[in-house]
Amino acid sequence: MKAMVMHETGSPLVLEELDLDQPGPGEVRVRIEAAGVCHSDVHYMTGGLNARTPIVLGHEGAGIVEEIGDGVTNVSPGDKVVLMWRPRCGTCEYCLTGTPALCELGKVHGQTNELLRGGTRLSKDGVRYHHLMGDSVFAERAVVSNESVIAIDSEIPSEIAAIMGCAVITGMGTVLNGMPDLTGKSVAIIGAGGVGLSAVIAAKLVGAAQIIVSDIVGSRLEKARELGATHTIDSSSEDFTARVLELTDGGAHYVMEAIGRPATIRAGFEALRPGGTEIVVGLGAVGEELSIPVNLLVQGDRKLVGALYGSSNTPVQLPELLRLYKAGRLPLEQLLDQRFPLAEANQAIEHLRTGAVGRPILVP
Q: Which of 86, 163, 185, 248 is the most exposed place for a label (fewest CB within 10 A)?
């Protein structure tokens, strides 16, 4: 099968013909129908995040189950599935308390770039290739652990299903789980990519009074307004913190930072009203650190927290969001950007970096 491979950081992906093993016990083979291109993939390509090479990138995808290994009961051949980059075992402390995004299995993918039961299922001429986040969906097919898939309604378009696996569940989940009292209040969203725009949809859904969105790309801000933003800030020419303080008469109740840069995280923190909360979902480079004013934190009773995968209970919330989509409540089609064939993954990544509105999609 064909796949896009990263051999070393800083180099373009290479289209190669790889051997894909049969699924072992507890594993599933999926024919990939759509894959979203995410900034996290860019972080791995540039070295901001570390991975073992050679590796097949892509962690946001959907497809059709072709074959299952022994012991797999949650999906069957022919099922349409969303692939998740955070697996859930269902038995650890985090899964049992409703926070499967923190499942103990998650670190296995990140630390080994292998599947949960050990080893990789990708190879070429006897050389083993690695899996990104247990998925590796920049490919025609993928063998993944059964803990990494959720079966969904077959009527859901594959491109919509793909972006559910990262952008939508992260952005919408952060709003729905981290801002439970947002109705009638204000939220400022830093970064209008796929995650930030998903957060706009969720904030409108729950009835936020002010939805303020910041970015440096005008077309992204225009899309944010179409999706429900009440105000936008062009951070290439406007001071984000000052503008939010002005618009909200003293600070936002919530800020969501979807970029992962210390400067924008601090700007968001300083744009909070007393008692407000900033939730950071953007990933920074490994080892990057942040400083904030201590007295502003304490005297303003402000909160600065992180959210992984939208702090979502994915087996429950992802199907719920798809039911809302089918009911016409979530305009997720507006998050889809240009489509690219698999062989043009490098062009899709460059498009993402230079101004894509929403998610570029690879269609193997």
A: 185
